[in-house]
Amino acid sequence: MLAERRHQLILRALRSGGPAAVTDLSEQLGVSPATVRRDLLKLEEEGLLTRVHGGAVADEGDQPFAEVAEVRVAEKDAIAACAAAMITDGQSVLLDIGTTAYRLARQLHGRRLTVITSNLVVYEELADDEGIDLVLLGGMVRREYRSLVGFLTEDNLRQLHADWLFLGTSGVRPGGEVMDTTVVEVPVKRAMIKAGGRVVLLADAAKFPGTGMARVCGPEDLDVVVTDAPVDPATRSSLEEAGVEVVLAGKVQA
């Protein structure tokens, strides 16, 4: 099998199934683990994935929204349902960009809420729901990623306060730092954190450690993390030391 074809199959496996071990990729491709390691090194050099202990995880930061929306849908829906249960009618909710925030928006139909967002897909999902007061932040449109960014978005956020912020991420480091792969989104996320009363991070299992070169915030800026799988001990310890509640979709982790 040609290297280019292997690279395509490796990225497809990581984007559809999340982090994968070298041994699993070796079996799927029918090549040696050494060949897979060389492929992973090459793909990491090209900025398409991040190697982790024993395997790799895809960098989703540059994927169009439509592609990411098809990945780990069931996991995102479980997280979204758990997050939606935290919200009381009459409250204001700030929704970040990304596909998990979109899945959360789908859970809010029929509720009496104020929803504030820079996520164009969230806006489209809720635009016809008359029970929701919908605030779309201004800014520069990123068409492929269905979001609004820039100083206008940040200025809008400085004038607002929401009871809840539901924040997305591309990775959470063992020290509890929230990361992102898309640098232009980071100032907006930071402005959202300042505008949110309670900050809830929505992060499926693939986000531990996930990817990202830009630091959004530390664990001290979070109130809750909602995930679909147990968090690794090092990260969990860092979060709990900072007073962050870790919620496994469906039940509270003591």
Summarize the structure.
The protein is an alpha/beta fold. The chain contains ten helices and 16 strands. It is globular and about 55 Å long.
Keywords summarizing the entry:
globular, alpha/beta, repressor, 8-stranded mixed sheet, 254 residues
How many strand segments? 16
- What helical percentage do the residues reach? 25-40%
Total helical elements: 10
**Average pLDDT over all residues:** 88
The span between the termini is: 49 Å
What characterizes the major β-sheet?
8 strands, mixed
What fraction of residues sit in β-strands?
15-25%
Strand arrangement, major sheet: 6-5-4-9-12-14-15-16
Low confidence ranges: none
Quaternary organisation: single chain
Q: H/E order of the elements?
A: HEHHEEHHEHEHEEEHEEEHEEEHEE
Q: Cα-atom Rg, whole angstroms?
A: 18 Å
Which overall shape is indicated by the principal axes computed on the Cα atoms? globular
- Indicate the structural class: alpha/beta
Task: Characterize the structure shown.
The chain has 254 residues and is α/β, with parallel strands linked by helices. 37% of the residues lie in helices and 24% in strands. The strands form 4 sheets. The chain has an 8-stranded mixed β-sheet with strand order 6-5-4-9-12-14-15-16, sandwiched between helices. A 3-stranded antiparallel β-sheet has the order 1-3-2. Helix 2 (22-29) packs across helix 3 and helix 8 (151-158) runs parallel beside helix 9. InterPro entries: Carb_Metab_HTH_regulators, DeoR-like_C, DeoR_HTH, NagB/RpiA_transferase-like, Tscrpt_reg_HTH_DeoR_CS, Tscrpt_reg_HTH_GntR, WH-like_DNA-bd_sf, WH_DNA-bd_sf.
